[in-house]
Amino acid sequence: MALLIIAYPNLQQEDFQKIQSFRKLYDERYYSVVEPHFTFVFPADNISEKDLEIHVKQQLNDEKKFDFSIRRAIVNKDSFSDYYYVFLVPDQGTSNIIKLHDKLYTGPLASQLRLDIDFIPHIGIASSTDPVKCKGRADEWNRSDFEISGSITHLTMINYENGIVEKLADFEL
Predict the structure, then answer these.
(1) What pTM, to 2 d.p., does this model score?
(2) H-helix or E-strand containing 149?
(3) What percent of the chain has pLDDT over 70?
(4) Please, what are the domains in the chain?
(5) DSSP structure class, residue 1
């Protein structure tokens, strides 16, 4: 069992469709697995579902929903595979995401925080083992003056196993 904490952002339908259309063409790894999201806690396997749920509820006790705005795409190399990704990275809301990510990686999750890997808040939109293809796809987004705005109103605990995402719990902010 690999438990994660993610946020499915509230987006305008037009923006959601634009992201999904792009992902359908270029996200060969995750398009059919999970909808657009921000990851707050990456796969954790040394904590029970119940203990993670208790921890997340405690950490979210005083957290409020927040807005974000995305105006750029970047390329990122996966630390664990030969894949490169194209990320939509928020300009506004980044500090909220980072602070909440760091808050969740306390207590029973503290030992799983990877300080050797940069945490980049993002929505993944493309994947390939070819970095040049990913750079071209990021450039395609960045050539236009786009802005995707939305909000994070809740987090979701999921189990990701054998290429399947199972929703386990929602946590309102």
Answers:
(1) 0.95
(2) strand 148-152
(3) 100
(4) 3-172 (3.90.1140.10)
(5) -
